Amino acid sequence: MEGGSSVISLRVTDLSTITLPMDDTRRPDHGALFGVASEQGGYFTARQAHRCGFSRANLSHHAASGRFVRVGRGLYRLRAYPSSPREEVFRAWLSFGKDTAVVSHESALDLLGISDVVPDQVHLTVPRTRRGRPAAPGVHVHTAKVPPKRDETTLVEGVRITSPARSIADAAAAGTSPEHILAAARRALARGMVTPQQLEWVARQRGGWVARIIRQALDAAASS
User: Fold this and answer.
1) By C-alpha distance, which of 173, 178, 167 is closest to 207?
2) Residue 218: strand, helix, or coil
3) How far from chain centre, in Å, is Cα 23?
4) Which of 18, 126, 149, 169 is positioned for an S-S bond with 202, CB 3.0–4.6 A?
5) Is pLDDT larger for residue 8 or for residue 44?
């Protein structure tokens, strides 16, 4: 230090290595969001909306204006979209996670149109690793050590559900009455939705009571 003055050395950081946050400047694509929602009864998740260019602020704005209806955490509905008798199924399925949950048991039989049972809850099957997650009121979550494989599921009205054979076996194992299981199996066979071989396979896999009721349905169909 000379003459009362000081020299301060500064270490300059290489600015090329700094990553600054950038605002999401994508324009919201209402057409893309409508396409997503129209396949899900008018419902969509916040994540799906974000993929279509909607920020949190956009979602809040449209919810406040009434264009979107917030029906749950991270779940919305297009207000102008026609209502569906499957509203509660869409809400339960999307709320739990469409990439994780599959509509199953009596709910799947109902969607397939092969059962007279009117479920008093929405039945979902999820991997056992998700069993700690609480279910919403009116939702019955079944956990499976081996979740339904892709060939054990199908799409009905945009909802991923268990296949006819798996749905019949799951419902039987969960305690659906024998007459309803027999009726569902007969209808599925008569409509070509399932083959005798597929039902025989699930009967062998489950064994016990489930195998007996399914084989009873197969015998009845063979003799008719």
Assistant:
1) 173
2) helix
3) 31
4) 169
5) 44
92 within 8 A of 136, measured Cβ to Cβ: yes
Q: Residue type at 110?
A: D
Residue 56 shares a structural domain with residue 124: no
> What share of the chain has pLDDT > 90, as a percent?
62
Structural domain range at position 54: 30-78
213 close to 174: Cβ distance less than 8 angstroms: no
DSSP 80-121: TSPP-TTHHHHHHHHHH-TTT-EE-HHHHHHHHT------SS
- Which residue, among 71, 76, 69, 73, has the nearest Cα to 44 in the 3D structure? 76
Domain identity same for 111 and 204: yes
Residues in the chain: 224
Q: Which of 7-21, 30-44, 127-141, 155-169 has the lowest mean pLDDT?
A: 7-21
With bands split at pLDDT 50, 70 and 90, how would you rate the model's confidence at 2? very low
CB-CB neighbours of 121 under 10 Å: 16
Quick one: how many helices (H) and strands (E) in the chain?
9, 8
Reported confidence tier of residue 22, pLDDT bands at 50, 70, 90:
very low
Claim to verify: residue 119 and residue 68 sit in the same structural domain: no
Exposure of 220 in the CB half-sphere (CA atoms within 13 A): 16
H/E segment holding residue 122: strand 122-127
Residues 59 and 92 in one domain: no
